[in-house]
Design goal:
The chain is an alpha+beta fold and 1873 residues long. It has 31 helices and 102 strands. Strands 2, 12, 14, 15, 16, 17, 18, 19, 20 and 22 form a ten-stranded mixed β-sheet that branches. The chain is globular.
Length: 1873
């Protein structure tokens, strides 16, 4: 067979692969050549002396293993004359860093380089050894000779290079590399530098087997630097263990290249670049670590103008001594848009000849031109002064408008010089710029190196690089390095790493979208985002988003936190292809931008200080800064003062008046504008004065002017942390105080040495002490004890009640009242803060006992004060009234408890005469305690508050009488009071006020909120904190009369239904409650009790509008007006209220059952066995609250907040009725919203995903066991997700929820609403009951093979482990289908269970109902039905769609559908990917398509599996192969289109008619990008009328398509459905990146003739972007990067135009194909066409031939047989095969992309013996990143199998021709070997 191939460069590749692995590519060495740059003295004699006395050393170590960073120590030991002439201090002795660390793009540097160019000539012994933890290399030693004027080059490697296909290393006689052999891993510790030992092996195996912690030892044993110690490291270890190969490097010398850099012409420019950096540019090295990898940037003369002919950049250098070079490469910065495109390079040879090389579009144009008329410099051998001056003047003359960058360095010292730009008035014509713009669009964006080839080796003494244009015509150019070459044939072009480029960030409101240009030969992308969130405050987070199929991603959150507006986020992207990953792109920044004004600031709190207020507020979304406005509250409308531009969430207002109330509001601000004002708030400053406290019966009255009372003898200030005066606590001076920096002053832990002891002059009877803290005391006192001593010094302890009180100005103090009066001469006051470490006493006031209160209390027989003693008479009560009027003669005051005691006497008189009210008496539930809920892990959102049915404003008093079984007056209780804020903000809901004592407790309602726009105050509750069922309490609530015109509290309607009440009792309570509800008049109460306050009555804010309805599992705390509205009127109200409470209790019971908790008595009675699974007694509290931004309900601490409008709906619940198995019959458990919030409160934290898993409970409430009642509908989106192969969660939250719901469908035994009476049945029947139970107690989880469940992973892995435990099956495939990736521990736990064989990812509600109705499962795990089908793909269609037809033997309704799998072979690996689920339609057949969006030029085998109703699979069936290969037609997802035509087409489905009614809009044009040429847009342009009455003629019709980001485009296709008229005729195509500048695309034709036809019959024409070559006259393919494409129908204004579809095409990627009859035995030797003496393939070799598209320098072909073995195997031994890849000779340039090249794969005739020839063969094309090591190997194209010919013909290769005729002729003669 012959086939003509003209003038091709042959790239030879030999494969030697153990076990068929692709390990090598061929003999492509890095170009050899001098790269050294050494500055020289300006004195040429000194230079010559230097060159004649010294030489250089370059030591390069190739990191073939990819090991971590390592330092090396190198020293030269002189020998012979050198040893005699040198002192030891002059020896070269240095450390250098290998730099083998991963850079930000994840790559490991290949070479460590050490260079020194000033080594005295002579003989040396080179010593090299590793240093540091990873320096485990054995010492290397080699004799070397340094020659004057030469550089000695040594090349070492840390692995055997022949393994990496270095051609020169395969022949031992030609080897150049020395081997640096790993030694003892712990050499640094052992200091013995031994060879690898058994100890090292054991240490490595211990780490691999997990017997030792890895982190601290990784540095020693992680040989390949991948961050893990695993089998790959063991493979490397075995490679060197007992291997004695210690080869040395071959010494290679090269001329020492020295530069004398020309001085700059004008050193005054501000942009300076030092000589040293210029030299480093040419050497490719950086001395400073921070400079490594950074380019040098040069500007044109006019900094703000693009580099151009009139504004160039020049870089010039003199060689001190002529160096022979053949060319060099100018490397750009990776990804830079400022790389050199146009310019020239001028060389001056040793003989003075000038060579000029022109560069155009980044490539050399033609051969170098000789031009002796141009002299760039004088000879460098002239004197110093003349050399510099002449060079300066001559160069300046040749380019007077350039910026020249130069450098000079002496041997002794480096001096920085400046780079100066200067220009003439010459500027580039605008038309030239336009042409440059157009030409620039023809190139791909990734910068390429500029390769300069002189054609032969030339001694050069001067070089000038002149740059006149960059890629994007920028004003600067980036150059990474310049590399000199002396052998162009060995040059290897930079690899195309498919790094995503053209990253573009699109700002959004609290989100952003990033897109990038699609890359060829990749399957997806990984995106990393850095930035802050609402949760993270100032901490920058990092999130790696799972593989993205599309080249776009919208980001609205990081690590679960919402993005912040006006914040900069950083993004980088890399390409993926299986395990291969490209380096990351450069980081881009994108700022989020608000699209509307911010919401007003919320949750403002104010703390008063002395002459200041401290203000804090919630961090608001979309807010850049805050403004605060304040004024004194005077009741008059005065102006506000302002603090503006506040960027934090707190501030201080200073310079205020003392004890003054200020009102304030705030606004937020962003770039859009200022928010509406917030609510008004108020705060009060304090003054550093003592509170006004009672002096009635005060014992220690201080002296006038200050000083302790004479009744106090001494004070012992025990426990003070700060020195103070002896009488500081009793001197009447507030500024003096006792301070202890601790949380306890001998109160909790008894100690008389922790607080002051006050000694009186005599013993006094007392019962009350007032404690006044100093003004800095921020922490409240929570407990108090009084220790006292009587006259006999006998110690006693007074127990009592501590109450925090406020004086009329709000200044706090504490009152301690002892249970019993005591007589004391000494007293110690002991308090505690509970946990805050500061206690202070500014004053302690002791009061003489006054018995009146005790005598009044003694009239009662009970602690609730509702029963009088028998001896109480009216006269006795009147006597108490008289004594109440007593005035203390010292203070002039009546008892401070006058009002309260008067009310007690009034109460007694009423009781005596059987009239009046005793208030409200409540019997508390002692089973409602948090102590019972310690086992649950979701209790933070629940509470155990019991309503008291009382409310009031802050400052109002409430009296609570507490009675307890077995308790006496003054005893402590387990009760505490909770105060709440009615209609409060989410941050100011409740506050714990105080503990209660038996008997009387006076409660002051605290201020919780600083809101001034609403009433401060709310309901009170009592909370029991004791052991369940252990203490019985009753509470009586009374309201004292208001004092001094103040407001007072009031009783409100409330009902308790939480006890197990009989029906009649429940009905009585409901009737009484409804009566209270009818009788309550909040407005009348407001006028009566709040008449003195400033707030007018508002039904939404008045605290008297509150009511509480307490059920078993829920408490509604809602507005009474809305309760009435929700209940309606008439007799049905009682039943409706009953229904609501029962429905909510039922909903919560249902939710709790799925959480695995129960109130089953068998569970309660066996707590040991079932600990942790009891139903919580705490309740969900649904409260009326103020809604924050964007909310209508929310879940908060201890409550769920709902708004006014949602409150009435809480009365709409109806208990659900079901059949025995839980099948829904009737009822409604509220709406989605409240169940959603309940889900937030009870979510299982081990696997909770916010806004997803909480919706499981909402779905429970709403589902009716049908697909239609799910949040996600018909499951089509679910099936798309589970057959997409996409990693990470679904983008749609409802679809994410479906994953959890499918587990319920797959494993729960009954219908949705089934509630179980017995815990065991519940546990056995509900999947999530088991899961959550194991989450609370993992020790109970099954572990059949001893692998215990650990719930310590991330949320995904916790979920997977718990699911395996609950199912007792390995269900990991289910989660992998949903995009999760199990870790090693999860896999190990799952592996002990049998695999789940059902396809539970296909479960749905409708199917499950049918299963439940059908009864038991069939029992078999396999399904006997047979499925079959076929696939077809027509490459002539040029699309990415494979057509699939399916059939099944089971056409019954038990067959639910087909799952299609796409199978791809990647070498030995078989990758099976689900791509689609096709539901059955009952016909037994189905037709579908597989649209392959991201992969091209690949061969696939298709497989189909059928499933029955029980999700059991049929046997998989292979239905055929397809090879998808298209010309890059692009995915239209997220595209949009606009047109200037008007159409009569109807709106697209789902479009509203009233959207933007004033806008001229016609969305019908979107049908041209809907992927369906059956939909056609028809329209025309029309003339328009102007405001002045004139007309503008109709324009040419045009359609603009907006792509989803910038793409590389190659062609456009126009389709028109058959039978449609209005075809476009003459056309133009334009592209744009910004919508402003449009570039016309050249095409061979400019008229559509629609000569083609699609499968559907549509007429079609594809237009390839191509430009005519001016020389050859042929049209050449060109590409354009654009984000918008405009198609214009030229000259067709006003005419009807029809378009069915517009298809755009991008890059096609690499491709491999077979040629017809291309397999045979070689008839004659095949020789190198350029060198006939070189035989490439021997006669008789078996050859395979084909075609490819790609880059031959980075492509590798591999053939596989039907047994998945590499073709060329010989008796199971090492495989030997070779290949030739043919590419056009690049001439002076690099090997670049080839669109239709040839390849030959062969097994040499000598190796054919014993080779088993395949029956079938397929081809794979690989691409690699590194041509030397095959690093970055990935599959990019493959073919289907072809059959080997039964009779293998002979093939004749003549030159580069393969002839079909020769094959036929040889076969006819029977000459086949």
């Amino acid at each position: 067979m012959k086939q003509k191939i003209a003038a091709f460069l042959v790239v030879c590749m030999l494969l030697q692969m153990p076990g068929g692995a692709l390990t090598a590519q061929g003999s492509m060495n890095h170009p050899a050549g001098a790269k050294q740059i050494v500055a020289v003295s300006a004195d040429n004699e000194e230079i010559e002396e230097r060159l004649n006395a010294a030489g250089g050393l370059q030591l390069k170590i190739k990191n073939l293993l990819g090991t971590p960073e390592c330092k090396f120590h190198i020293w030269l030991e002189p020998k012979g004359k050198a040893a005699q002439q040198m002192e030891e201090t002059e020896w070269l002795d240095e450390e250098f860093d290998a730099g083998w660390v991963k850079d930000q793009e994840g790559r490991i540097n290949i070479d460590a380089v050490f260079e020194d160019q000033e080594i005295p000539a002579g003989k040396y012994v080179l010593h090299l050894e590793g240093v540091g933890p990873a320096g485990f290399y054995l010492p290397y030693q080699q004799d070397i000779t340094i020659e004057a004027g030469q550089t000695l080059k040594l090349l070492l490697a840390n692995d055997y290079p022949e393994r990496y296909d270095f051609e020169s290393e395969k022949d031992s006689s030609k080897r150049k590399m020395g081997i640096l052999v790993p030694g003892n891993f712990r050499a640094e510790e052992n200091e013995d530098k031994e060879e690898l030992s058994e100890e090292d092996l054991n240490g490595l195996l211990s780490l691999i087997n997990g017997k030792e912690a890895q982190e601290e030892l990784k540095v020693y044993y992680d040989l390949n630097g991948d961050g893990e110690v695993d089998l790959r490291d063991l493979e490397y270890f075995v490679r060197f263990y007992h291997n004695k190969d210690r080869r040395l490097a071959k010494a290679v010398t090269a001329p020492l290249i020295l530069f004398e850099m020309v001085q700059p012409v004008d050193p005054d420019n501000g942009n300076s670049i030092s000589n040293k950096k210029i030299q480093e540019l040419f050497s490719g090295t950086r001395e400073n670590e921070e400079d490594k990898g950074k380019p040098l940037t040069f500007y044109g003369a006019l900094d703000d103008h693009a580099i151009a002919v009139g504004n160039p950049v020049e870089i010039a250098a003199n060689f001190t001594r002529p160096a022979t070079i053949e060319g060099f490469v100018i490397y750009p910065q990776t990804g830079s848009l400022s790389a050199m495109q146009d310019g020239e390079v001028v060389f001056e040879g040793e003989d003075g000849t000038i060579y000029t090389v022109t560069v155009k579009d980044g490539k050399q144009v033609g051969e170098p031109k000789k031009d002796n008329s141009r002299k760039t410099t004088q000879s460098t051998t002239s004197s110093k002064n003349s050399s510099v001056s002449k060079a300066t003047s001559s160069t300046a003359a040749s380019s007077s408008s350039s910026r020249r960058v130069s450098a000079n360095k002496t041997l002794q010292k480096s001096s920085a010089v400046r780079a100066k730009a200067y220009a003439t008035e010459q500027t580039e014509p605008q038309e030239n710029k336009a042409k440059a713009n157009e030409a620039d669009e023809d190139k791909a964006i990734q910068a390429k190196p500029v390769l300069i080839n002189l054609g032969s080796q030339i001694p050069v003494k001067h070089i000038t690089i002149r740059i006149t244009k960059t890629m994007k015509q920028s004003s600067l150019v980036d150059i990474a390095r310049v590399e000199f070459l002396n052998d162009m044939e060995d040059h290897i072009p930079e690899p195309d790493l498919s790094i995503p480029d053209r990253l573009n960030g699109i700002p959004g409101d609290a989100k952003f979208t990033v897109n990038w240009r699609n890359q060829p030969n990749v399957t997806g992308y990984e995106v990393v985002v850095y930035g802050k969130t609402m949760k993270s405050d100032d901490t920058e987070l990092e999130e790696k988003f799972p593989e993205q199929i599309m080249n776009t991603l919208t980001v609205s959150s990081l690590e679960g936190g919402e993005l912040v507006n006006n914040e900069i986020y950083k993004v980088k992207v890399r390409s993926l292809n299986g395990e291969w990953k490209s380096p990351y792109s450069e980081l881009i920044e994108v700022r989020t931008e608000a699209t509307k004004r911010p919401e007003p600031p919320e949750q403002i709190s104010i703390t008063g200080g002395s002459q200041k207020l401290t203000v804090k507020w919630k961090k608001m979304k979309s807010t850049d800064s805050y403004n605060l406005y304040y004024r004194e509250k005077t009741g008059k409308e005065t102006e506000f003062s302002a603090l503006t531009g506040i960027t934090g969430t707190s501030t201080e207002i200073t310079g205020l008046k003392d004890t003054t109330t200020y009102e304030l509001y705030m606004t937020g601000q962003n770039q859009i504008g200022v928010s509406d004002p917030s609510e008004r708030y108020e705060g009060k400053t304090i003054v550093v004065v003592p509170p006004v406290t009672p002096n009635f019966k005060l014992l220690n009255v201080p002296k006038k002017g200050g000083g302790a009372s004479e009744k106090i003898v001494s004070v012992n200030n025990h426990g003070n942390s700060v020195a103070c005066d002896e009488f500081a606590t009793v001197d009447g001076i507030f500024e003096t105080s006792w301070i202890r920096n601790d949380w306890d002053a001998g109160c909790v832990y008894f100690d008389n040495n922790k607080s002051p002891i006050i000694t009186f002059d005599q013993a006094y009877k007392m019962d009350t002490v007032v404690i006044i803290p100093d003004y800095e005391q921020k922490f409240n006192y929570s407990g108090c004890k009084l220790v006292y001593w009587d006259e006999q010094d006998k110690q006693g302890i007074a127990e009592g009640r501590l109450t925090r009180l406020l004086d009329k100005d709000g200044i706090p103090y504490y009152e301690f009242i002892a249970r019993e009066p005591f007589t004391a001469k000494k007293v110690r006051v002991a308090v505690t803060t509970g946990y805050n470490r500061r206690i202070s006493f500014a004053e302690l006031k002791f009061y003489e006992y006054y018995s009146l209160e005790d005598e009044i209390f003694d009239m009662y027989t009970d602690t609730l004060h509702i029963m009088l003693r028998d001896d109480v008479t009216e006269d006795k009560i009147k006597g108490f009234y008289e004594r109440l009027e007593y005035v203390d003669p010292v203070s002039g005051e009546k008892t401070p408890r006058y009002t309260f005691l008067k009310q007690e006497l009034d109460n007694a008189m009423d009781l005596l005469h059987n009239k009046g009210s005793i208030g409200r008496v409540l019997y508390l539930d002692d089973k409602l305690t948090k102590r019972s809920d310690g086992h649950i892990n979701f209790g933070g959102g629940l509470n155990t508050w019991q309503p008291l049915g009382v409310t009031g404003l802050a400052g109002d008093k409430v009296i609570l009488y507490v009675g307890g079984d077995g308790k006496i007056e003054g005893d402590s209780t387990s009760l505490s009071v909770i105060a709440t804020q009615y209609f409060g903000e989410s941050s100011t809901v409740f506050k714990s006020v105080t503990g209660l004592k038996v008997g009387l407790n006076e409660i002051t309602i605290p201020r919780i909120t600083n809101l001034s726009s609403a009433e401060a105050g709310g309901q009170l509750y009592v909370q029991y904190g004791g052991t369940s069922g252990a203490e019985k309490y009753a509470v009586r609530v009374t309201i004292p009369d208001a004092e001094d015109g103040r407001s007072k509290a009031a009783l409100i309607p409330m009902i308790n239904l939480y006890n197990d009440l009989d029906k009649s009792t429940q009905q009585e309570r409901i009737a009484a409650y409804l009566e209270e509800l009818d009788n309550i008049d909040p407005q009348a109460l407001h006028n009566e009790c709040h008449g003195s306050i400033e707030h007018a009555y508002d039904p939404q804010t008045c605290v008297f509008g509150a009511t509480d309805i307490a059920g078993k599992r829920v408490m509604f705390s809602l507005p009474s007006e809305q309760i009435k509205k929700g209940l309606g009127s008439g007799e049905a109200r009682a039943q409706k209220l009953t229904n609501t409470v029962e429905a909510m209790d039922q909903l919560l019971t249902l939710c709790y059952q799925h959480k695995g908790v129960s109130d089953d008595e068998t569970l309660v009675n066996n707590k040991k066995a079932n600990a942790g699974n009891e139903m919580p007694v705490s309740r969900i509290n649904i409260r009326y609250q103020r809604m924050f931004e964007g909310a209508f309900m929310y879940a908060g601490g201890a409550h769920i907040g709902i708004g006014w409008g949602s409150s009435a709906g809480m009365m709409e619940g109806v208990p659900v009725k079901t059949d025995a198995k839980g099948k829904y019959q009737s009822g409604s458990l509220f709406g989605w919203g409240i169940a959603h919030e309940i889900g937030h409160e009870i979510n299982e934290g081990a696997y909770a995903v916010a806004e997803v898993t909480n919706n499981y409970y909402a779905q429970l409430a709403k589902s009716r066991d049908t697909d239609a009642t799910t949040r996600w509908g018909d499951y089509s989106k679910v099936y798309e997700k589970v057959t997409s192969g996409a990693k990470g969660p679904a983008s749609n939250g409802a679809v994410q929820l479906a994953m959890y719901w499918q587990l319920h469908l797959a494993y729960d035994k009954d219908y949705n609403f089934k509630i179980y009476d017995r815990y065991q049945e519940q546990f056995d029947s509900l999947f999530f009951a088991r899961m959550d139970s194991y989450a609370r107690g993992s020790v109970k989880a099954p572990a059949p093979k001893g692998v215990a469940l650990k719930v310590d992973g991330d949320k995904d892995n916790n979920l997977m482990r718990l699911a395996c435990a609950a199912a007792q099956k390995d269900v990991l495939e289910f989660f992998v289908r949903w995009g999760m990736e199990p870790d090693a521990l999860t896999k190990a736990y799952a592996a002990q269970f049998p695999k789940e064989t059902r396809a539970i990812w296909l479960a749905s509600d409708d199917k499950r109902v049918r299963v439940l109705e059908a009864g038991k499962d069939p029992g078999s795990e396999s399904y006997s039905a047979v499925v079959d089908g076929s696939v077809s793909y027509d490459e002539n269609d040029d699309n990415n769609t494979v057509h699939i037809e399916l059939t099944t033997s089971d056409s019954s309704d038990k067959f639910i559908g087909y799952e299609i799998f796409r199978i791809e072979q990647k070498g030995k690996e078989t990758i099976r990917t689900a791509v689609k689920f096709v539901p059955a339609d009952g016909t037994g057949t189905a037709v579908t398509e597989d649209v392959i969006a991201t992969i091209n030029n690949r061969a696939f085998t298709y497989e189909v599996v059928g499933y029955n109703l029980w999700l059991q699979p049929t046997k998989p069936v292979n239905i055929g192969q397809a090879r998808v290969s298209h010309s890059g037609n692009m995915d239209q997802t997220n595209w949009s289109a606009v047109t200037n035509m008007l159409s009569d087409n109807p709106p697209l489905p789902g479009e509203g008619e009233d959207e933007e009614p004033d806008a001229v809009r016609d969305d019908a044009i979107l049908c041209v990008i809907d992927g369906d040429n059956g939909t056609t847009f028809t329209g025309k342009t029309t003339e328009t009328f102007n405001a002045d009455g004139t007309k503008t003629p109709a324009a040419d019709p045009e359609v603009v398509i907006y792509l989803n980001g910038e793409e590389t485009l190659t062609a456009l296709e126009y389709q028109l459905a058959d039978g449609k008229s209005g075809a476009i005729g003459k056309f133009t195509i334009e592209v744009s990146a910004d919508g402003t500048t449009w570039t016309k695309v050249p095409t061979e034709k400019d008229v559509f003739n629609l000569s083609g036809t699609t499968d559907s019959g549509a007429k079609v024409q594809k237009v390839v972007f191509s430009k005519k070559n001016a020389v050859s006259g042929k049209y050449e393919l060109c590409t354009y990067d654009a984000s918008m494409v405009k198609l214009t129908a030229v000259g067709q204004a006003g005419k009807t135009i029809s378009i069915s579809e517009i298809v755009l095409f991008g890059q096609t990627g690499d491709r491999i194909d077979w040629v017809s009859n291309g397999v045979g035995y070689l008839k004659e030797d095949y020789v190198n066409p350029k060198n006939p003496a070189e035989k490439l393939i021997s006669k008789g070799s078996l050859i395979f031939t084909g075609e490819y598209a790609g880059n031959p320098a980075y492509n590798v072909v591999l053939l596989w047989d039907e047994n998945n073995k590499v073709v060329g195997g010989k008796n199971g031994e090492e495989i030997k095969a070779g290949q030739l890849i043919f590419a056009p000779d690049p001439g002076e340039g690099d090997l670049t992309r080839v669109e239709k090249g040839k390849w030959v794969y062969y097994i040499d005739a000598a190796d054919l013996g014993g080779v088993n020839l395949p029956a079938k063969v397929r081809a794979e094309l690989y691409r690699v990143d590194n041509a030397l090591t095959n690093e970055g190997q990935r599959l990019v194209s493959s073919t289907v199998f072809i059959d080997m010919p039964k009779t293998i013909p002979e093939i004749l290769l003549e030159g580069t021709d393969l002839s079909q005729a020769s094959v036929k002729k040889a076969a006819e003669k029977g000459e086949t070997p």
